[in-house]
Design a protein that fits this description.
By secondary structure, this protein is α/β, with parallel strands linked by helices. Helix content is 42%, strand content 19%. It has a 5-stranded parallel β-sheet, sandwiched between helices. Helix 2 links the parallel strand 2 and strand 3. The protein is globular and about 50 Å long. The chain starts with a strand and ends with a helix. Bound molecules: 4'-phosphopantetheine.
Length: 165
């Protein structure tokens, strides 16, 4: 029987509990979920590429059907190279919809055989984004419960290293 494989793409700077919720739920729908970390994002990241991969691998280590990989260039080309049927994206609020719709339609135009599957974010994380996590943390707010504890630890190390320079 053919394996159903999905790509869950993103920048993951850093991975949040909202991402993990989508990964866990999508891993129940597909035989394999590949977390595709975009290499050449134009954003200046908090965590460099290797750090992000290391963190993500550690936090999904207990889920055998989840794999972490990197990609460059067009997402649909990457999905096809992995023989993936689907792209999974999380939607938090109506404000996500327009951007996600544009991407899904463009991706469908480029690769009609790849379906985008949207999953509604868990209510508890519906306001959560990597950007807000970074902002709150940098302003000394608590991010406990919003990101895996490893992410919080690594963010504290980053802040400390910044203070020491
Ligand atoms: O976590 P993000 O930053 O919202 O993820 C955005 C991502 C990586 C899914 C998107 O930027 C992407 O797919 N980039 C790859 C380049 C590409 O295929 N662009 C055309 C999309 S329609």
């Amino acid at each position: 029987m053919r394996m159903r494989r999905a790509i869950y793409p993103g920048s993951f700077d850093p991975i949040t509990n909202g991402h993990l919720d989508i990964i866990e739920r999508s891993s129940k729908l597909f035989d394999e979920v590949i977390i595709g970390v975009l290499v050449n994002s134009q954003k200046t990241p908090l965590f460099n590429f290797d750090e992000r991969i290391e963190i993500i691998r550690a936090v999904v280590a207990d889920w055998p059907q989840v794999r972490v990989d990197t990609f460059n260039g067009l997402l649909v080309n990457y999905a096809q190279s992995q023989q993936a049927d689907c792209i999974v994206r999380g939607i938090r609020a109506v404000s996500d919809y327009e951007y996600e719709l544009q991407m899904a339609l463009m991706n469908r135009r480029l690769a009609p055989n790849i379906e985008t599957v949207f999953m509604m974010a868990a209510e508890d994380y519906s306001y959560l984004s990597s950007r807000l996590v970074k902002e709150v943390f940098m302003l000394n707010g608590s991010i406990t419960g919003l990101v895996p504890s490893l992410v919080e630890e690594k963010m504290k190390e980053k802040l400390q290293a910044k203070k020491n320079t």
